[in-house]
Amino acid sequence: MVAYKIKGDYMDCQLYAGNLFLWTYSGQLKVYNFNKLIWALAEHGEVSEEALRIYQVAGLERTETRFPTDSEVYGGTYYIASRNGLFQTKLDELEQGFKKVWDCPLLSISGKRKKGLTMAGGEAGVFLYSEVDAIRERYGMREESIVQASNKHANYSAFCSRGVYATSVLDKSFYLQLPSFGYEGQYISVDEIFPNQQVSLSWSYRNKIYAYIDERICVKQIERNGTNVKFTPLDEYRFYPQKGKVLSGTSTDFVDLIELEHAFVIVPTHRTEDTHAETIWEPVTRWRTFPKSIGYNSVIMVILEDELRIYLVDGLDGLLYSSMARQGRGIKWK
Fold it and tell me: What is the 3-state secondary structure (H, E, C) of 126-162?
């Protein structure tokens, strides 16, 4: 694993189709050519905020939502979740600004191809959003493009297998098997997934559910047979929270990312006796992974107080090899 640094104060980032999107605290959204920028980072190790300017390809000087709670880019559209609701813009219309879609305050959003967006609204529950007729038909949505999937509290939600997994820090997290072509949905509490165990925190990735239980990270795989769902133990490893209470987590094909009170830990998924976790001691503002992006699924971005740190799990060679699939697919900025 190698790490590079981009100096500056940022509050959010995204990586899509060869472009790096950076939000500043002044409400600016700046877009950079990541495929060119990565060569400068490989040569120098870090890039200053001033040197970064030569790689800028587009930007938005002012946005209506200066402080997004979350963001997502997929299908050529940039989405913003905020306390003021949901906003979106087509990437080739970025400089025209974001348009408001919905008024509901949101804590997180997560998108997936052919499934739309899932959104967590805290006490308001979990919602689905799509403007594609085929997706709306699958979920039983008629005229509306937004539908409430659950009224239970959720801080974060993500598509998982054929459903949605919702993480809550105030209530029980849960797996929601979505209704599909006439099948009714099904609510399954984390207590049913990990019975007779005290789950401190849980999250999902693809068809897996992760839980922190008694200084262990436990992983179960979702297996489906028609409308029947079962959760099969898949992996488990010791994790001692010597840096404070476990606050949140996420996973990719390559790593588990675990936020603690006083540290941020990157644990390789494929572990051996010689495997060492990467520990970040500085306060972390936000982090991003890009498991759905062809070519960038081994990239981790961590925003610290005065820099954006980019980790390449497979190193630069691995990134360049996998990024070949993105060549010629970049956005044509006006």
Answer: EEEECCCHHHHHHCCCCCCCEEEEECCCECEEEEECC
